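Lab meeting, action items carried over

1. Structure of the two-component assembly. Owner: GW. Status: complete.
Input record:
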Amino acid sequence: MNYAAQAIRQFIVFKLDEQLYGIDIQNVQIIERMKPIMRVPKAPNCVKGVMNLRGEIIPVISLREEFELLQTETTDKTRIIIVKLEDAMVGIIVDEVKEVIELADVAIEVVQNVQGKMKSNHLLGVGKVQSDNNIVTLLNLQNIIEESFEK
Amino acid sequence: MDVSQYLQMFIEESKDNLQRLNENLLKLENTPEDIQTLNEIFRVAHTLKGMAGTMGFTRMQKLTHNIENVLSEIRTGKIKVNSNMLDTLFQCLDALENYVEEIINTAGEGTEDYAQLISELERIVNQKKEEVVETSKERIISASPSHIEIIALPEAQETIKNKALAMDMNVFQVNIHLSANCVLKSARAFVIFTDLERMGEIIHCIPSVQDIEDEQFEDSFVIVFVTKESQQRLQEVILGVSEVSNVEIVALHQGVQEKVITSAESQIEENQETHLNSAEANAQQNGKQQVSSKTVRVNIDRLDTLMNLVSELIIVKTQLEGLNVNVQDSSSNYNDSVEYLERVTTSLHDAVMKVRMVPVETVFNRFPRLIRDVSRKLGKDIELVMLGEETELDRTVIDEIGDPLIHLLRNAADHGLETTEARIASGKPKKGTIRLEAYQDGNSVVIEVQDDGKGIDVSKIKNKAIQKGTITKEEAGTMSDQEIVELLFRPSFSTSEEITDLSGRGVGLDVVKSKITTLGGHVEVQTELNKGSIFRIRLPLTLAIIQALMINIGSEKYAIPLNNIQNIEDVRKEDIKLVQKQEVIVVRDEIIPIIRLHRVLGLPEQEDKELMMGVIVKKGERQVGFIIDSLIGQQEIVIKSLGKYLSGIDIIAGATILGNGEVALILDVNSLI
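Predicted assembly:
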């Protein structure tokens, strides 16, 4: 077996409602507590507004529309994950940030239509967390974010 | 010598020099007899050659050397300036620009020799071969070693000489012969003097310094020079100055005069260092009519850093002002300090902004050359009129604006202007005019490219667009002429080759538009059939920090750039009238339509209060009133972009961070109206 093909990737696991999602740690800049967000008129639905991250203005989005979830109140577990895509930074509101997991490429299963509602190009696949037997949906953030801003 | 650290400087200066060559060659084309222009060209070419040599770019040096040969023949009147020759010279400048390009990209000059251009240059020089041969012969004769007379020194100088010798210094008598066709003899002498004074002291000189300055001498003069340097070195330095045909040096001794004569023909060897010096010194001499200002080249990144720091400072200042409210009872020193800080930051901001401003001239100055080339290629008689070159724009904008303007100018020359025959047939002046004008309009800079050509034929574009499927027939029916003209900026429309055969302009207009848009500007067309067209580019001045009026709408805070605001009015509920379904108010006999910002910004509508507040904004001649909830006040704000993902929202020009860290959005008044 070729060890090079078994590259390990790290994912940050976060929670929206009861479901776990993972995003590649390479994209993640910082995780922030909830901050004041200024609504931007005429912005796409999923864009909650813009926030001030140490002098930079960053759009903040919610994935709830994307996953067809109901809006919830902010709790003290709510976090904003700041991700960097190409050159632009975007904040993503999540209910809770759980942990960082390591997955070998081979441990990521490509599943078509996991939830039936998500487009397949929004997914990298699903990964299994050994410790508690949970399933994490791994997201292709680039595609998700680009499409949500197009709407 | 390691010259890599000078590379950047070399590149910048070469660009400047090439630009100056371009400008002056154009000038020369119009006034071929102007010796001033010619001298300037010669001088710049010479500097360029020297610099290329110093940096070890031999190909570039060789080409410039050949150019110089041609120029020198023109200067001596052996050949006359003509258009074909200038074409060749312009091609040489292009070649030199290619070298510089190559150097920028690879730090080497590449392997292109431009042998054809060089042989063309040689051909021009050899047109009058016989004469050249003859004069060079003369020069050899005059340059041969000859008997040298030791001049008698006046008493005072004799004493200095003896003292110097006693101190183990060398004293030389130097006879310097300038070449017969040297034009600025006093300038050359001056250069020699400056060079020598770096090595020692001139104690005597015949004719007198005054006479030499006034050019009251033949081709030669004699100096007595005290130095620690060797005779060899002295000779090298003097011969390094161009147009010195011959030097004779005699070492002077106490009592017995021993004659050691050395002579050599000039320009056998070129000492680059002194060459540079000579060119510079020469510039001082010739430069009386030149406007020169002292400048320092600064990396734009460093300026950006400075700018960011200023922005931070302004935010802090705003924070302090906010604090002020809570500590009103404390000493008044606090207020004074904050006020003082405000004054300093404001001046600092202005200063930094000004540093970044560059006149559009730096872009415009290459266009006369462009139009000349285009006009010769197309066989059209074109006059380029440039206005408002002194208008200033931010450096980053200046760097980007060149290409779009070239596109527009080419389009104007190629597609806009008719052929000479067609112009005569339609009763227009033979010479087509392209007007390039820049001016400041409020907070933006407008650049117009106007031609007096045939204009854009709207119906042809319409047909073409339908044919290409860009729009449907039904759509075409509802579109205004203006909208149809705007189709030219659609990418799908302009990639087609055929469109150039039409009256329309198509090539690259989408590129122009996208470039201007990324710069935060926009471009519009105004056209009239058979009268011509105007392409108008509107660009923001740098607006990184502006004065703005902060307002409350609902629970949100917004900023309106102060320069958009005309005045602020109280609006009574009953003052709002309906005219053709549009709400208006009457302010001082003027009817002003109103916009309810709640509605536009997607906030819940409110019951009309008895007394509301209206901010009257203007866009050109138009006035519109914004109905707002309340005013916060005037504030200096730092504009931040919303980033790439939200750039599509046109009513928001950006965001700013308030003193308390909150974000407020800046309204784009132009797109709201």
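2. GW to write a short summary for the group page. Key points so far: Chain A has a mean pLDDT of 83. Residues 79 and 94 of chain A are 6 Å apart (CA to CA).
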